[in-house]
Write a structure and sequence with these properties.
With 498 residues, the protein is of the alpha/beta class. It has 2 domains: 165 residues, Leucine Aminopeptidase, subunit E, domain 1, CATH 3.40.220; 315 residues, Aminopeptidase, CATH 3.40.630. Helix content is 35%, strand content 21%. The chain contains 15 helices and 20 strands. Strand 4 and strand 5 form a beta hairpin. Helix 3 packs across helix 4.
């Protein structure tokens, strides 16, 4: 889909959109269209008792006389003083979806300064374009037949704004976000017969093209490192487990890197603790944490972030066969700690334990942030609104929450504590991989991971089980969300780049 930024003119054509703020106030372009059409827009707004200019509200007017446009769509931005960039992006996504539904081939969006807002017109224009671009994503590579009315029709967006050159430059800085987001959505959407540990590792290798250094460890190398916790998860699969290490050196040589860790269970049957059949197909996205880390590392490299960072993802399949680990088995992690595997479906934490330890031993990072679709319990607690945040460091947790709020990837901090940790006590090993009871499943999973944090290193675990896949919103179609990519990017930009 082509995006163009053009200077304002007095003529309008095709499918045109303009903005309204709450209390039904038309912005400058909408006012100009209204005058040219002899009050058509004002009458339409007055006749629509439900359209008030609130965020994402739309009102379509067909073929207003006197302006040359076939269709005008008014979209609300809410109160100008409360306008944020995510609302603007949402407007772009909503307008694209509306135009596709109406079968339009192009979309023209008129950008005006918003009274009460500090956002510049160039930034508004760039964010509208980004929101539309994010909404344009489709995963349709395996479809061989599709009705014309099911296909998107918009092939060009024209953003009309005073200062089009500045807006185009602002959009160029943002476009890598869409590139990395689309990559992550592709990875999470792929079926498990296409995306498995080796093939995902191969896709990671391609990221050398954006400047990342990529190293892949196979089972022989991981065995030599003592990664019995990770290897135990994948031993029931015919697919070899992998660990991928991606490094970006954009900061001073003396700067300790930021470490980002991702769970990459490319398919999770539950192993011997087999999941029920209903919905098991969704377990192709149990590698959503690894995809988020891969996408975030790609984005940092693509925009030449002034920071040192390492991304480590453990890639396995959890399958039940004669070689699979059994409930009651004891494995030895890279840290030397032993783990009694009570439930083979609590496998992600076993993978992450060795990834986290390797990151600390190899890179001596200044902090460690981990993403994983770890527990169904976090979905019960927080639904699809927020990811669960667990951390041993309040400053780190606060920075992550602030970054998430800015980009619309919200977090909710959950508790940790010694009382929860006691629930992991094993009779025969250093710990169990699940608690003795049914309660606090997300918390005890985080407590398990905390046992693999060295010397109280600032660490955060982000459970994205309710966020990696969704029903869609203004900028995200139903399916993979790429949650975590923009969170990491904003977190790094706000706090660790100079």
């Amino acid at each position: 889909m082509r995006v163009r930024f053009v200077e304002p003119s007095k003529s309008w054509a095709g499918n045109t959109a303009a903005f309204v703020v709450e209390d039904r106030t038309l912005l400058a372009s909408a006012q100009a269209i209204d005058r040219a059409s002899r009050g058509t827009l004002a009458r339409a707004v007055a006749a629509s008792h439900r359209f008030e200019g609130k965020k994402q509200q739309t009102l379509a007017i067909l073929a207003p006389a006197g302006i040359g446009a076939d269709r005008v769509v008014l979209i609300g931005l809410g109160q100008g003083k409360d306008l944020d960039l995510r609302t603007v992006e949402g407007a772009g996504g909503t307008l694209l979806a509306d135009a596709n539904t109406a079968g339009q081939k192009s979309l023209t969006v008129a950008i005006d300064p918003v009274p009460g807002s500090r956002l510049a017109a160039a930034d508004l224009a760039a964010r509208v374009a980004l929101g539309a671009q994010l909404r344009s994503y489709r995963f349709d590579k395996y479809r061989t037949k599709e009705k014309p009315e099911q296909k998107p029709t918009v092939n060009e967006i024209r953003i009309v704004v005073k200062g089009a050159t500045a807006a185009a430059k602002a959009y160029a800085r943002l476009s890598p976000i869409a590139d990395s987001t689309f990559m992550v959505r592709d990875l999470v959407s792929e079926p498990a017969n296409i995306l498995y540990p080796a093939s995902l590792a191969q896709r990671c290798r391609s990221l050398t093209s954006v400047g990342l250094k990529v190293e892949v460890l196979g089972e022989t190398q991981m065995r030599k490192l003592g990664m019995g916790s990770l290897l135990g998860v994948g031993q029931g699969s015919d697919r070899e487990s992998q660990m991928v290490i991606m490094t970006w050196r954009g900061g001073p040589a003396s700067q300790k890197p930021l470490a980002f860790i991702g769970k990459g269970v490319c398919f999770d049957t539950g192993g011997i603790s087999l999941k029920p059949a209903g919905g098991m197909e969704d377990m192709k996205w149990d590698m959503g944490g690894s995809a988020a880390v891969i996408g975030a590392m790609r984005l940092l490299a693509q925009r030449k972030a002034r920071v040192n960072a390492v991304g480590i993802v453990g890639l396995v399949e959890n399958m039940p066969d004669g070689k699979a680990q059994r409930p009651g088995d004891v494995v030895t992690s890279m840290s030397g700690q032993t783990i009694e595997v009570i439930n083979t479906d609590a496998e992600g934490r076993l993978v992450l334990a060795d990834c986290m330890w390797y990151a600390q031993e190899k890179f001596k990072p200044q902090l460690m942030v981990e993403f994983s679709t770890l527990t169904g319990a976090i979905l019960i607690a927080l639904g699809h609104e927020r990811a669960g945040l667990f951390s041993n460091n309040t400053e780190l947790a606060t920075r992550l929450r602030k970054a998430g709020q800015q980009v619309g990837e919200k977090l909710w901090r959950m508790p940790l504590g010694a009382a929860y940790d006691k629930l992991l006590r094993s009779e025969i090993a250093d710990m169990r991989n699940v608690s003795a009871g049914r309660g606090a499943g997300s918390i005890t999973a985080a407590q398990f991971l905390q046992r693999f944090v060295q010397n109280n290193l600032p660490w955060a675990h982000i459970d994205i089980a309710g966020m990696a896949w969704g029903e869609g919103d203004a900028t995200t179609p139903k399916g993979a969300t790429a949650y975590g990519v923009r969170l990491v990017d904003r977190f790094v930009a706000d706090n660790y780049e100079k």
